[in-house]
Design a protein that fits this description.
By secondary structure, the chain is an alpha+beta fold. The chain contains 3 helices and 9 strands; from the N terminus they run H-E-E-H-E-E-H-E-E-E-E-E.
Length: 169
């Protein structure tokens, strides 16, 4: 699919998702296990759950079933999900929003860059790799995602329940 058709599809999907009250993080066309996948990422304050994904999937299915046949491959799977902790980065605005966060960028050449996002301007992303700045043109980025890093010393999200004491009779 050419860039103009992708933008048209993205705008149509975004408007339908936003009309339901969700943020459209982005989408991607991928090939997995011999099948074409249209993967759509949604979010909202407080996060999304399975029922949110089902609601959006129903709306998008109705739209895509009625759309021109040349928009997507003849057979594809639609997957709607939250972006998760390793949130994909689709736009320069995403990179600007997450300045100070750790990310991994894969360039179209196949080279991977992992570091902290320092800045994003109208055409490039600057990251710090081991203290050294590296700049990549946004047009050269194939994909990007935030990296989840567990911070030492943070409390776990679960409570350890102490064993019950035996009563003496």
């Amino acid at each position: 699919m050419d860039a103009n058709r992708m933008n048209e599809l993205y705008n149509d999907l975004r408007s339908r998702i936003e009309s339901l009250g969700y943020d459209c993080v982005g989408f991607e066309l991928a090939r997995e296990g011999g099948m074409e996948m249209l993967r759509v990422y949604i979010d909202m304050p407080g996060g999304v759950d399975l029922s949110d994904c089902e609601t959006v999937a129903r709306e998008l299915n109705s739209f895509l079933d009625a759309a021109d046949e040349d928009i997507l491959p003849e057979r594809y799977f639609l997957e709607v999900s939250s972006p998760g902790v390793e949130r994909p980065l689709f736009t320069l605005g995403d990179y600007a929003r997450f300045v100070g966060m750790d990310a991994e960028v894969t360039l179209k050449s196949g080279k991977k860059i992992s570091g902290t996002i320092e800045a994003a301007d109208e055409s490039s992303v600057r990251m710090a790799l081991k203290g050294e700045p590296v700049t990549a043109a946004f047009a050269d980025i194939a994909r990007g995602k935030l990296l989840y890093k567990e911070h030492r010393g943070e409390k776990k999200t679960f409570k350890k329940i102490p064993p019950k004491k035996k009563k003496k009779h």
